[in-house]
Amino acid sequence: MIDFDTLSERMSRQTVLCIGDLMLDEFVYGEVSRVSPEAPAPVIAAQRSEFNIGGAGNVARNIAALGGRCIFVGLIGEDAAGATLKSELAKDAAIEAHLVVDASRPTTRKVRFVSEHYATHMLRADWEVAQAASPQTETTLIAAIKEALPRADIVLLSDYAKGVLTHRVIRETIDAARQMGKRVIVDPKNLNFAVYHGASILTPNRKEFTEATRSRARTPEEIGVAARDAIATAGCEAMLVTQSENGMTLVAKNGDVLHVPAYPVKVRDVSGAGDTVAAALALALASGVAEEDAVRAASAAAAVAVGKRGTASVTQAELRKKILPHAVLTMEEKIVPDWKDIDARLDDWRREGLRIGFTNGCFDILHPGHVRVLTQARATCDRLVVGLNSDDSVRRLKGESRPVQSELARAEVLAALEAVDLVVIFGEDTPLELIRQVKPSVLVKGGDYTREQVVGHEFVTAHGGEVVLIDILPGHSTTSLVNRARSNQP
């Protein structure tokens, strides 16, 4: 797996040519407290509304938010919704929009009415003409696409079946891209995958995939079998089937199957998650990473998107936090002065199904022996909590001349380590009460202890956890370092 900093730096240098159906998403939020006297229908007292760039425009927004540059080609009507979309896209310097205006059709607009109190999507009203663009409009779209192609690193077709991606537009775009050696990613809507023949990767969701292949495939193995004929029909390199909470399955032309589980996350709204997947996948592939790494990045981006309300975009910082949650916390966020305040953080980790580890110590002068224990402790779990003796606790254990550094200084040094997710200061002589609070799945200590000498081992094992002893590095001791420094020994 490529490291995230390298991936993000590469993504920021990529340009994606995105072509597809643009729409204006409006969300009207209000309270519902009564039924209309005119008909058996709820009445929503509208309180606020939000406008978002939707459809393929949301793909463009995600490309920009993830650090890339997007050249967008789409279609609008000569109306207020079209003017709003043009104005909103112009606000993002990372999006270069080429919007063809067709006065004979309205800009696609979708208004969703949402009960604020119940967080319930009650009704959606659509303004659209879902029919193929006219031959004249097709010609204008194709000219804009071919003019932009030389400046793009990859091409992304976002098909919402509203009329932009006609057979002619699709065919000329894919053929021109292949002649220039550029990959084409397609988020399809047409269930005849042959329409997209020659594309590099198709990204149908499971419903689209099962309908197109006329199968009931659910498991990665079944999807792999069903995808073989579909890949041959589409003449593509691979097919990525997205399955919401069941993750994503990538099937290669040679039959290899890769399944990436979904990140555990509280789902607020799945609107636009497919857009996020397509944007992240295209940017990652354009960056030159392996398909497996690109799919994992797309999965992480989707997990962020579904945790937001409405048609949401995902930033590079949010993607980093999902992939490397322990690395983005500041030292202040990692340090908890009172161990009684850690429940909220622990509850979040437990809800995500993460394995929590625990170790403890004074860590007065951090040395290679400490680092070895901490890094190997982190390897045994998903999140590592470090119990740190307070100054008073250290004095009782080590004498009045210790600690050399204050508890805050020691905590900051520990928090700066990527292996450490949480530093909790405790004032007791032993961390037993803290261990009972954390309820770790794994309790880690240096190999200079026996299993029976590890404080908390009985509690942890009784609750289904395990005790792990890490081999220590000989010759490294805080006490010996302090003694040598005070006696001026080298």
Automatic annotation (TrEMBL):
Residue ranges of every copy of the Cytidyltransferase-like domain listed in the record: 358-452
Gene3D superfamilies to which the protein is assigned, alphabetical: 3.40.1190.20, HUPs
Presence of the UniProt keyword Electron transport in the record: no
Reactions mediated catalytically: D-glycero-beta-D-manno-heptose 1-phosphate + ATP + H(+) = ADP-D-glycero-beta-D-manno-heptose + diphosphate; D-glycero-beta-D-manno-heptose 7-phosphate + ATP = D-glycero-beta-D-manno-heptose 1,7-bisphosphate + ADP + H(+)
Complex formation: Homodimer.
Region of interest (Cytidylyltransferase), residue spans: 358-490
UniProt keywords, alphabetically: ATP-binding, Carbohydrate metabolism, Kinase, Multifunctional enzyme, Nucleotide-binding, Nucleotidyltransferase, Transferase
Protein name in UniProt: Bifunctional protein HldE
Source species taxonomy: Bacteria, Pseudomonadati, Pseudomonadota, Alphaproteobacteria, Hyphomicrobiales
Gene symbol of the encoding locus: rfaE1
Pfam families with a match to the protein in the record: CTP_transf_like, PfkB
